[in-house]
Write a structure and sequence with these properties.
The protein is mainly alpha-helical. 74% of the residues lie in helices and 2% in strands. The chain has helices at 6-34, 44-47, 49-67, 79-110, 119-143, 149-186, 198-221, 247-286, and strands at residues 235-237, 242-244. Strands 1-2 form a two-stranded antiparallel sheet. Helix 1 (6-34) runs antiparallel to helix 3 (49-67) and helix 3 runs parallel beside helix 7 (198-221). It is globular, with a radius of gyration of 29 Å. 22% of the residues are buried.
């Protein structure tokens, strides 16, 4: 099935993938070149896993999970398969986000740094909790054949909105975290953040890449002409019986055909009645 504006979609998709991949690479360069690398020993090297995993999972992979339904090459795949891919990507993002939190708490506890005092930590923890809740509810309502069709229709707009809201919240949290880290670390160095040190300029560029990636994902997912077409013959399994997906649409089409057939029958009956009336009138005029 052809997509409207396919070339525009392809260009934006390539741009989003490139910017997202560069965001991950820039994060790795930041921690490896400017922050002394990675480790898992409770020191600052363990903390460095926090930005790497957050940008990789919570930003890049989550962004891909959001637009996976928009890929026209997957439109021939079953909706169930795409649901598993969507849920799988979000699960990977959630796991990486949880590991990134473990790295932060380990580092803070080993260094006697208070936990959960900054706005970055409050918003970030809220985003992780809501993200896991969104993932669990999506699994039981949309992936498993347990929820009734009426419940899915009710929850779907909330699911879509909350997914985009959480993605935007994660990007804002990452930008706050990057700024907070630079303010804490560069003030201890010989060149302060306000003096435009190379690390500050490089990491600010990373923040712009993350912001651009989010903007591209939001644009792709909000274009109605790039939405995955509905599957007329697919089924949504119900607890007691199988119910065809899009049953309302099928019923509407059938009702439309019935209305059309009824009108045609009425027109034909009216025409016959007029012909009979004319015939009777003709017969009376010849008598």
């Amino acid at each position: 099935m052809a997509m409207d504006g396919y070339r525009g979609f392809l260009g934006l998709l390539v741009a989003a993938l490139l910017v997202g991949f560069l965001s991950v690479i820039f994060t790795l360069i930041w921690v490896l070149h400017y922050r002394e690398g990675l480790g898992w020993d409770g020191r600052a090297l363990e903390f460095n896993w926090h930005p790497v995993l957050a940008v990789t999972g919570f930003v890049f992979i989550q962004g891909i999970a959001i637009i996976v339904y928009r890929l026209p090459w997957t439109w021939k795949c079953s909706k169930l398969l795409m649901k598993f891919i969507h849920a799988g990507l979000n699960t990977i993002a959630a796991i990486l986000a949880i590991i990134s939190l473990v790295a932060v708490f380990d580092y803070h506890n080993a260094s006697n740094i208070p936990n959960m005092y900054s706005l970055h930590s409050w918003v970030g923890m809220t985003a992780v909790i809501l993200y896991i809740l969104q993932l669990v509810l999506g699994f039981f309502i949309f992936l498993l054949p347990l929820a009734p069709l009426s419940l899915r229709a009710l929850v779907m707009p909330i699911h879509v909105y909350s997914g985009l809201f959480l993605f935007g919240t994660v990007i804002a949290t990452v930008l706050m975290g990057v700024t907070e880290k630079l303010l804490f670390t560069l003030r201890k160095d010989t060149v302060p953040y306000s003096a435009f040190p190379p690390e500050g300029v490089f990491t600010n560029t990373l923040g712009l890449l993350i912001l651009l990636f989010g903007a591209l994902i939001f644009w792709i997912v909000t274009r109605p002409q790039w939405k995955r077409p509905k599957e007329p013959n697919s089924t949504l399994l119900q607890p007691n019986r199988g119910t065809p997906e899009g049953v309302e649409g099928s019923m509407a089409i059938n009702f439309g055909n019935m209305d059309k057939s009824d009108s045609e029958l009425n027109n034909e009956a009216a025409a016959r009645k007029r012909n009979i009336t004319l015939d009777e009138a003709g017969q009376r005029s010849t008598v």
